[in-house]
Amino acid sequence: MHWGFLEYILTTAMVKEELLWVLWRNILFSVEDLKTTSGESIIIKRAGTLNAHAGPDFTYALVSIGGMEWCGDIEIHTKASDWNKHKHYINDAYESVILHVVYDADVDITRADGTIIPVLELKNRIDAAHIHTYHTLMENQSVVPCAHTFASIKPIVVEQMKQRVLIERLERKTESLFLQLKDQPNWKEVAGKLIFKSFGTGLNDFLFERLAHHTDFNKLDRLSYAPKSIEALFFGMAGMLEETFKEEYPIALAKEFNYLKRSLNVELVVELSEWKFLRTRPTNFPSIRLAQLAMFFSNPEWYHDFIGLEDIRAAKKLLNGELPAYWLSHYRFNHASDVLPKHIGSTFANTFMLNAYIPYLALEARYSKSEDAWDRVFQSIDLLKAEDNVITRKWVSLGMKMKSGFDSQASLELYKMYCTPKKCLSCSIGYAILRNAPHTTAVI
User: Fold this and answer.
1) What is the pLDDT along the chain (444 residues), one digit of tens a residue?
2) According to the 3-state scheme, what is the secondary structure of 309-324?
3) Which end of the chain is less congested by CB atoms within 10 angstroms, N or C?
């Protein structure tokens, strides 16, 4: 096989549509003597807006073709023949395409009426460094694909990306609650659901979220005078009262739950076998967290106190009510232990603020569409401590600042939503690396 043809195949395989989107949006290719494949001159006046929905890739573009100005959509493909492969010719949404931007114009493409769609071929206009930089990022096996060049990125680029992904994280994690608020603005229930999930601490958070979904917070308020009833309700719904007990305390809770099932029309929500106890510290056992959660909601003013939180100290005070004496010598039912108080420490209080209070503030900001409310979100999270885990430590080793909850939450989102799926070109950091790739005389 001729080397030139082999090189063409390899290069074409390396040029993905994602890369072409970035190159087009930022005009990162040679525009000297820009022409369509049929020889008409092209002047790009506005690249358009990347379309996140179905239809052409860019909308509201403004392009002069052959001296005539066109406003419309841009479709981008690696090969022109991908137009037919994706069956755009039978989709009316693509009739508004004014320019087909491709790496390789392997065939002519026509509209439904038979007219040829103008094509801009980018082959031999792209700096080879851009393609090779993109390929390096995609093929890198590091936890963070850009680890080898991260230190060279300007701090302002990193900070701007962190601010962007923090907002994305808060919006992603509160989307279902935001939709609930738009349908029925019950802020107390939303706060309750956030609090429930925050007690799940990782392995069991989805189970606490399920419990919250099946909890009627109006009925819960009516039980605030009877803490033992709330505890019975939570443990009963959690499936932890289905065992055979010899101790008086769990026997009494099981009896109370049987009464609540009839009077409040509640039922078991989680199977006991679903709870994760292994690889969990005893103080984080779901049984202890449920007991603490029941104590929290036994406070008739829990909502008022929650929305009035200002710092970790206040959160710690709110969370540290007095548990029933039974829990002094137990971490779970039927298993006696040494007598130890089960206090909530600063670390959990900090996590509670990050996973319950900050998302609540974010929901207020989204709902009110207030910049001042968003400022409050950032000011509040900046007062919280940064989390310390495998992912945050990796970022620290690369030189990222990890001084507050803002830094750790942003770094977790960046890792989960951009680094892991390798969405490097959707990331400002990845784009900066691509843009700053050493210029070469070679074009591909």
Assistant:
1) 443 433 444 455 568 899 999 999 999 999 999 999 999 999 999 999 999 889 999 999 999 999 999 999 999 999 999 999 999 988 999 999 999 999 999 999 988 788 889 999 999 999 989 988 998 898 888 889 999 999 999 999 999 999 999 999 999 999 999 999 999 999 999 999 999 999 997 789 999 999 999 999 988 999 988 999 999 999 999 999 999 999 999 999 999 999 999 999 999 999 999 999 988 889 999 999 999 999 999 999 999 999 999 899 999 999 998 999 999 999 999 999 999 999 999 999 999 999 999 999 999 999 999 999 999 999 999 999 999 999 999 999 999 999 999 999 999 999 999 999 999 999 999 999 998 877 665 666
2) CCCHHHHHHHHCCCCC
3) N
What value does the CA radius of gyration of the chain take, rounded to a whole number of Å? 29
Q: What is the DSSP letter of 426?
A: G
CA atoms within 13 A on the CB side of 441: 0
Torsional sign, CA 186, 188, 191, 196: negative
44 three-class SS: strand
What is the distance, to the nearest Å, from the Cα of residue 440 to the centroid of all Cα atoms in its chain?
A: 37
Residues in the chain: 444
Which letter does DSSP use for residue 416 in this model? I
Contacts (Cβ under 8 Å, ≥6 apart) of 128: 440, 442, 443, 444
Sign of the Cα torsion 285, 216, 296, 318 reads positive
Q: How much of the chain is in helix, strand and coil states, percent to nearest 5?
A: 55, 10, 35
Beta strands 97-104 and 119-121, pairing class: parallel
Of 190, 184, 200, nearest to 303 (Cα)? 190
Letter string b/e over residues 370-401, b meaning 16 or more CB atoms within 10 A of that residue's CB? eeebbebbbebbeebbbbeeebbebbbebebe
Are 62 and 69 in contact by the 8 Å Cβ rule? The answer is yes
Measure the CA–CA gap between 64 and 378, rounded to whole angstroms.
44
In single-letter form, the type of residue at position 215 comes to T
Cβ proximity of 260 and 233 under 8 Å = yes
Are 209 and 193 a contacting pair, CB within 8 Å? yes
Half-sphere exposure of 390 (CA within 13 A, CB side): 4
Amino acid at 99: L
Tokens of 233: 């309700």
Is the distance from CB of 366 to CB of 178 less than 8 angstroms? yes
